[in-house]
Amino acid sequence: MNLLTDRDQLGERLFSPESMIWRVNREMALLLGGGRALLMQLAHPKVAAGVADHSHFTEDPMGRLLRTMRTMWSIVFDDSPQANDSLERVSNVHRQVQGTIQAGEPIPKGTPYRALDPDLLLWVHATLVDSAMLSYELFVKPMSLEKKKQYYEETKELASLFAVPKAIVPSSLEVFNAYMERMLTEGTISVGPTARSLAQEILYPRPWILKMGGPLSFFITVGLLPQPLREAYGLTWNERKEKIFGILTKSIRRLLPLAPGQLRIVPNARAAEKKKARRTWPGT
Fold first, then answer.
1. Residue 1 domain-assigned?
2. 186-201 pLDDT, tens per residue?
3. Distance (Å, rounded) from C-alpha 60 to C-alpha 275?
4. Which of 69, 210, 212, 235 could join 230 in a cystine, given CB atoms 3.0 to 4.6 angstroms apart?
């Protein structure tokens, strides 16, 4: 499937408004899965080390998440020049992130890491894709298997843009799901002290403006996490919480259609869709 329209191929944007990746990623509700994606990423000891050693994560964890999402929004929705600029900024940052694992982590002290390691790039990409699909289904509307497969196929193009080698990208949704299961159960993903420390900044944000919604954000993040990671981070869950979580997600789905576009649709998508509407309006 070609994700690019004829107009896009002339340089307007990287993804078409008709693509599934556009339809899914335009939803602001996907931010509800942001904490989940971050905790999954940090559960890889090399990712946790890179974040701890080369960022201001502890001072501004939610800012890091928002910057990540703004970059993703730019790549999917902005015109090609802006999207390519965003990709270049990410690449420049990644080139500087490298170091060695400290003592006390699940992998040996001195093990090297670098952000441009293909396996790390794939894991970070996979957490965003997996969290996006889950969040869309829970907070927006269910996706048919066909739509999930289409969405996944389109995210493979996104992986390529982020320099994930095609040879290691799971070839289908089924292979992707098996990859996620394997990563969570076979020891590569192992929460260490650095990850647990960084997780506190996500689960218990310090800025007062975030503390107001902190309990709800905490509950949603824990509810979205795979059970093995809940346990690894020392987070409790039970049937009562699961029932409340189910009621909460259904309520959000029912209320979401009533939300104004400024709150529901990400800014980059709104701008691109308005631009497209002006160009297709008769007489323009």
1. no
2. 989 999 999 999 999 8
3. 33
4. 235
